[in-house]
Amino acid sequence: MKSSRTYPQRREAHRSVRPTEALEEDCCGECCSCSCCSRRAVCVSTLVLTGLALTATGVAVALFFGIPKQPPVSRECRTHQNGSGFLCDDRVTCLPPSLLCDGVHNCPSGADESRHMCSDLPNNLPSNLVFRCGNSHFWIFVDKKCNQINDCGDCSDEMGIYADCPPCGSQWWTCTPVEFQYCLCVPRSLCKDGRQNCYDWSDEYLCSGD
To answer: What are the transmembrane regions (predicted)?
Structure first.
């Protein structure tokens, strides 16, 4: 009778896999989409590097095509005298142009004394606040135009088509002034003061004071 032999079962040559390792292999196939990857630092680094690369690309494109500039802040406004003015940052205060760059902060934020604006006058001023005199080397603030005073020195701010000034008001006497500071008229307060203020002496013989 043949004896029965018991043959030992053949062990498989592969090593056993721990459950956690299997889970890691299953979920970490695509590193950046796994939620249980033990190498999360690698995933985070990949995301950071990708973000930096996209940012650098965006900056390069912006530099190549040019970064659009912010539109300048509008400073135009009308003063209480219905003249051109300078609008402060509070968007309420409207200053007469002649108050700009005078060393006094008239705007709450000091915008009227801006270093950039005041460093190169009148080139850095809003163009609507500047009047160019007949002599191109001279200019005045526009609110000094048509004030009956010879601010330009050649009366171009009081006479001619560029100044376009109205006739002298009721407080002025129309004549050809003797004094350099006046152009088309003299104050009525100078009438009959015993001095010649008009070339034709009309301020003493025809004009009546206040």
So the answer is: 47-67
